[in-house]
Specification:
Layout: E1 5-9, E2 11-15, E3 19-23, H1 26-35, E4 39-43, H2 52-58, E5 61-64, H3 89-105, E6 109-112, H4 114-122, E7 126-128, H5 148-151, E8 156-160, H6 165-170, E9 174-177, E10 184-187, E11 192-197, E12 203-208, E13 217-218, H7 232-248
Parallel strand pairs: 1-4, 1-5, 5-6, 6-13
Antiparallel strand pairs: 2-3, 7-10, 8-9, 8-11, 11-12, 12-13
Helix pairs in contact: 2-3, 3-4
Length: 259
């Protein structure tokens, strides 16, 4: 039996600083295949090459991955500054309407890091360009040096709402996570429910209120050691169940409670 398809949002990169490629981390594909139990399919995130309606028909669910470029602040009504960093307007043009369409259809998606921020912006929220510059906030960025294991190491706890979606999923109100992001949520978008926070108050987990499908999104990177980490594995397993439910009954509501 064919596995359901998860479209993995790709990022534009330059190979050897000159050859443009659409790329995705192998750990994202491994998490989708080995933990969610779905077939990973890398999406070239460029509206000149693919359209949102085509993607909705071709894929059963979507993984909104992390990435170095940030959502352009014009998408939430602000001017770009040096602090906002690099951008990928082509990815913005695909992911933001894709999120809105999935929310409406009940088609499952899972947002990670930039993907977490995209979900917020897609529903009208705003972002801080640099969390570490805010009074009382910690530096959430990836350590500049060290091995991958050191960069993706668990660095701070995330606290969830008592009895909330993430508490029920993990069976705990607090878990340890990695942290590799510079930006963060400033104001929550319409229907965005912040359900997890870092010790400094930075939003770390969200879902879309009233959405008929799976919309869980996190600011950390659960794709790292997804099969072995006790926090990452439940996230990808729940996402996989939601994607399978959609693939078996396209168009029907796939509520999180049945995931």
């Amino acid at each position: 039996m064919a596995r359901p398809i998860v479209g993995i949002i790709g990022n534009m990169n330059l190979l050897n600083n000159e050859y443009p490629v659409h790329a995705g981390g192998t750990m994202n594909s491994a998490a989708v295949a080995q933990v969610a139990g779905c077939m990973p399919l890398l999406i070239p995130s460029d509206p000149r090459l693919v359209s949102v309606p085509e993607l909705l028909e071709a894929c059963d669910g979507f993984l909104l991955t992390g990435g170095r470029p940030n959502v352009h602040p014009e998408e939430y009504g602000e001017a770009a500054t040096e602090a906002h960093g690099a951008f990928d307007r082509c990815r913005d043009a695909i992911t933001l309407p894709l999120v809105r369409a999935c929310v409406e259809r009940g088609q499952p998606f899972f947002g990670i890091c930039r993907g977490f921020q995209e979900v917020n912006v897609a529903l009208g929220g705003t972002l801080y360009p640099e969390i570490r510059d805010l009074p009382g906030r910690m530096n959430h960025r990836m350590p500049p040096d060290g091995t991958l294991e050191e960069k993706f190491a668990l660095r701070h706890p995330v606290r969830f709402s008592e009895g909330g979606v993430f508490h029920r999923l993990f069976g705990a109100t607090e878990v340890m996570t990695n942290t590799l992001h510079g930006q963060g949520i400033k104001t929550a978008g319409k229907r965005i429910v912040i359900d997890g926070w870092a010790p400094d108050g930075t939003p770390e987990a969200l879902f879309v209120d009233g959405a008929p499908g799976f919309t869980l999104s996190v600011q950390w990177h659960p794709e790292w050691n997804a099969s072995g980490d006790p926090v990452s594995r439940p996230l990808f397993e729940a996402f996989g169940r939601a994607v399978r439910a959609w693939s078996e009954c396209p168009g029907r509501e796939a509520h999180l409670k049945s995931a």
